[in-house]
Specification:
Length: 437
């Protein structure tokens, strides 16, 4: 009896490697509600990447400005640890390298427009589920300032920070995605789940209701600025409705939400005044240690020394301001490197948008899903370029009032937005067709 030799599996195709690479990368973002699970997924993606990478991919060449800014930021982090007032205490901050590794991983895993769209849609759907979980918490007694909704996340700031970024991606999708959506970019693979108008609008309603219910003022402001910029880019005349909308909000908003919004400009509010005291303490730290800061993880230890005598709290975990926190911990050069990191991504996204720019057909429907809005500048990928810019703009504005860059879950979503402009080729829609297959 003849025994046949066992069949050998042939080498994986490039498409199989790409799918697995993308799936491993996406998994760490879709499990952010459990940071331990997300860490495991990110670790697996990093370990598997060398075997799954595409050696012919040119994305790292065009992402050189972003990678250089990341390298400078990382090098300055190491230097600030070495020259910290307590290096042993600051050493733990080097764990940020693990999260920062997700940036080059994103560059190598998001192969073109179709993958970017799939990831954005998955993030939007996951954010909708998280928002619905947060809204469900109202039913069990959450919703007050002492018990704010946080969805599946451990802290309300994480919850609102993640929703803020994804909300602006969704708004851009609804305002700028061409009619036909996935049929145009999916190479005939059919409509995506979020291309159904009722799903997209349900997600928008759920996410924004959860953002309002979170009572998080920095996320409100970031969402308002990012959303207003998108409307400005779409149809500037609609901004004339801002004042009537604000008046309507004052009239119909529940008292706790209205009081929370008005407290942002009220210095008699303890939280608002305390933030000013934190800024003052941060300025003093930077004045004494402008180049390398007091050291990572040292702000909390040294705050009692630098705090204003009228500050409400003796101790704070951080300065509730991304820019002041980086400058105080690591020095002004580190702050500059962070600003450059964000700026190069925004500049690349804007350049991509202008490259795709073309006048829209006045007879065409203006919103994805078929509703009409006056036609504005269009490009097939306008929703991606402008969504990234709006997300980073909202994130940067929110960072004036919260250390959102220091929140690991929020930082990982922000890293996606930093990478995406370099994952897409710049050119006209016709020149970029090869990315969608």
């Amino acid at each position: 009896m003849e025994i046949s030799a066992p069949r050998r599996l042939g080498p994986w195709s490039a498409e199989s490697r790409e799918r697995l690479r993308f799936g491993l990368y996406a998994s760490h973002l879709l499990t952010l509600f459990g940071i331990a699970v997300s860490n495991v997924a990110l670790g697996l993606a990093i370990l598997a990447y060398p075997a799954l990478r595409n050696p012919a991919d040119e994305v790292f060449r065009r992402a050189r400005p972003l990678l250089l800014a990341t390298l400078a930021y990382s090098a300055l982090l190491v230097v600030s640890v070495l020259f910290s007032q307590e290096p042993a205490t600051s050493f733990a901050s080097l764990s940020e390298f693990f999260t920062l590794a997700a940036l080059p991983l994103a560059l190598g895993s998001l192969a073109g427009e179709r993958r970017v769209r799939w990831l954005f849609d998955a993030l939007i759907f996951a954010a909708m589920l998280a928002a619905l979980a947060g809204l469900g918490q109202f039913w069990i007694g959450f919703g007050s300032l002492d018990r704010r909704i946080r969805g599946p996340f451990p802290h309300v700031m994480t919850f609102s920070g993640v929703l803020l970024l994804i909300d602006l991606l969704l708004v851009a999708r609804l305002l700028f995605r061409p009619a036909g959506g996935a049929d145009e970019v999916g190479a005939g693979r059919g409509r995506g789940f979020l291309d159904r108008p009722w799903v997209a609008w349900t997600a928008l309603a759920a996410i924004n209701l959860a953002l309002v219910g979170s009572l998080t003022r920095n996320a409100w402001l970031g969402s308002a600025v990012g959303g207003a910029w998108l409307i400005w880019m779409r149809r500037r005349s609609l901004l004339a409705l801002a004042l009537p909308a604000a008046l309507a909000f004052v009239v119909i908003a529940p008292v706790p939400i209205l009081a929370r919004a008005l407290s942002a400009a009220d210095l008699s509010d303890e939280s608002s005044y305390d933030r000013l005291c934190m800024l003052e303490a941060g300025v003093r730290m930077v004045a004494e240690h402008p180049l390398l800061g007091v050291g990572p993880n040292m702000v909390e230890r040294l705050y009692p020394i630098y705090r204003h005598s009228t500050a409400a709290r003796l101790n704070v975990p951080h300065l509730h301001n991304t820019y002041m926190q980086i400058a105080a911990e690591r020095g002004l050069p580190s702050l500059v490197s962070y600003l450059v990191l964000v700026a190069v991504a925004i500049a690349r996204a804007w350049r991509g948008y202008r490259s795709d720019f073309r006048p829209a057909d006045p007879a065409a429907p203006g919103l994805a899903g078929g509703s009409r809005l006056a036609a504005g500048p269009r490009g097939r990928r306008a929703d991606l370029w402008l969504g990234v810019i709006a997300g980073l703009l909202g994130f940067s504005v929110a960072g004036l009032f919260e250390q959102n860059w220091g929140d690991v879950e929020v930082q990982r979503v922000a890293l996606v937005l930093l990478a995406v402009p370099f994952c897409l080729r710049i050119g006209t829609a016709e020149q970029a067709d090869s990315e969608t297959g």
